[in-house]
C-alpha cells in the first residue's frame, strides 16, 4: 500500500527561526511559508534530494499543532507522511483492519494540493501517520 516517504513533519514554536536553522545552519533549500487555515498550520518545506521535511507552526484557533506543543513545548517529530496510489482504497483497507482514520474519514486537500488523511498515532506505534495520494 505504501509508496515513497513524502515528508517528515516537525512541530515548531517559531517558524522563522526553524526555517533559518535549516536554510542558514544546515544549508538546505526551503520553500516560502504557506498558511493553511483549514489545517490550522503555517508550513515551510525543506527540500531534500529524496524527501522533504515539513516545518509546522500553529495557525488559528484549535490548531492540532498548538495542542501538540502544549504537551511538547520544545516541539519535535509530529508525523510521517507516506504516499499511496489510491487514498480511498487505502482508507477502506485500513479501516477494515481496525486502524482509526482521524476526522470525518474523508480526505482533505493537503499542502501539495493532493488528498490527505491521518491515522491515529496509538494505532501506529506512537507516530501520527499521514497518507497522501500521489
Ligand atoms: C500542511 C497540511 C498537511 C500536509 O499536507 O502535510 C499537514 O500535515 S497538517 C498537520 C496537522 N494536522 C493534523 O495533525 C491532523 C490530524 N491530527 C489530529 O487529528 C490530532 O492532532 C490527534 C493526532 C488526534 C491528536 O489530537 P489531540 O486532541 O491532541 O488528542 P489527544 O491529546 O487526546 O491525543 C491522544 C494521544 O495521542 C498522542 N498524540 C497526539 N498527537 C500526537 C502526535 N502528533 N504524535 C504522537 N502522538 C500524539 C497524545 O499524546 C495522546 O497520548 P496519551 O497522552 O498517551 O493519551
Ligand atoms: Co504533513
From TrEMBL:
This is methylmalonyl-CoA epimerase. It comes from Nitratireductor aestuarii. Its EC number is 5.1.99.1. Keywords: Cobalt, Isomerase, Metal-binding. The keyword Glycosyltransferase does not apply. Pfam families: Glyoxalase_4. CDD domains: MMCE. NCBIfam families: metmalonyl_epim. One of its GO terms (biological process) is L-methylmalonyl-CoA metabolic process. GO terms for molecular function: metal ion binding; methylmalonyl-CoA epimerase activity.
Amino acid at each position: 500500500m505504501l509508496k515513497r516517504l513524502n515528508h517528515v513533519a516537525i512541530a515548531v514554536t517559531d517558524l522563522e527561526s526553524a526555517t533559518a536553522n535549516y536554510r542558514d545552519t544546515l544549508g538546505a533549500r526551503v520553500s516560502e511559508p504557506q498558511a493553511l487555515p483549514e489545517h490550522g498550520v503555517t508550513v515551510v518545506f525543506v527540500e531534500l534530494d529524496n524527501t522533504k521535511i515539513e516545518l509546522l507552526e500553529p495557525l488559528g484557533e484549535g490548531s492540532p499543532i498548538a495542542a501538540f506543543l502544549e504537551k511538547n513545548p520544545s516541539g519535535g517529530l509530529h508525523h510521517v507522511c507516506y504516499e499511496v496510489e489510491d487514498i480511498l482504497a487505502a482508507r477502506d483497507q485500513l479501516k477494515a483492519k481496525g486502524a482509526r482514520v482521524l476526522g470525518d474519514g474523508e480526505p482533505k486537500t493537503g499542502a501539495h494540493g493532493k488528498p490527505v488523511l491521518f491515522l491515529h498515532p496509538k494505532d501506529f506505534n506512537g507516530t501520527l501517520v499521514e497518507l497522501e495520494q500521489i
